Amino acid sequence: MPTLWIGSSSARAAARLRVVAESIGVAVHVEPLPSPDRLDADLTSLTARYDEVVWLLADRDERPEVETADAMARGVRVEILAGHDDDPRWPLQTIARLFPDEDVARRRLLRVDDVFDVSERGALVAPEVDKDLLPGPGIQSFRVRLVRPDGTEVRTHAKASIPFVSATKLVVARGFVLMMEGLTRQDVPRGTQVFRDG
After folding, report:
1. Crossing angle of the two packed helices 11-23 and 90-98, in degrees rounded to 10
2. Closest CA to 180 of 129, 124, 112, 132
3. Contact yes or no for 82/62 (Cβ under 8 A)
4. pTM for the full model?
5. What distance in Å separates the CA atoms of residue 20 and residue 195, rounded to the nearest whole number?
6. I want to staple 197 with a disulfide (CB 3.0 to 4.6 A). Which of 4, 73, 143, 156 is the partner?
7. Boundary-marking domain end, from 68, 102, 136
C-alpha cells in the first residue's frame, strides 16, 4: 500500500487531500509542518518512512526559501495552496502526480454537483459522465465507491444511462447520467467524489 505524509498549517487543505488519497488506497498521515530546529532530523526520518512527503504551504512566504529548497532537494513535494486551494480538481490532480501508478484519473468518474431522488430507484447525480470513463458501452450497472466531503464512504452499484433529451430539438447527449442504486440524496451530499470500484 502506498504511503503519504502531509505536513500543513491548513487543516482544510490537508483533509481534502487526505480524502482523495485514502479513496484510492493510499495510507495517509497528517501532521503540522516540521519546526525549524528539527527540520534536518524530521526530513531524514520522513523521507525514509513514507513513499511521498508533501508540504502544503499557504503561499511561498510561509517558510523560508532555504528551508523549502532543502526539503525539495530531499524529495519532498511542495504544494503552494494560494490561488488553487478552492479548485475542486486540485486534490485529484495532486494525488495523480504523486501516485501515477495508481491510475487515479481513470477510476474517478465525477464530483457530485447536484443530486435528485428517484422513487424506488435511487439517487440520480449530476453532472454527466463521459462515456470513455465507463467500464464499457451501453446501459449498464457497475460498482462504485462514493467518498463524501467528510471522509466517510459508501459502496453501491451505479446504473449508467443516456439522459433524456427533447424529441423536438436536435440535442446530442454529452455523456451518461448515473443512478446510485439504493441511495437517497441524503446519502450523496454535494462534493462527493465518485470512483469506479475495481
Report:
1. 60
2. 124
3. no
4. 0.58
5. 10
6. 143
7. 102
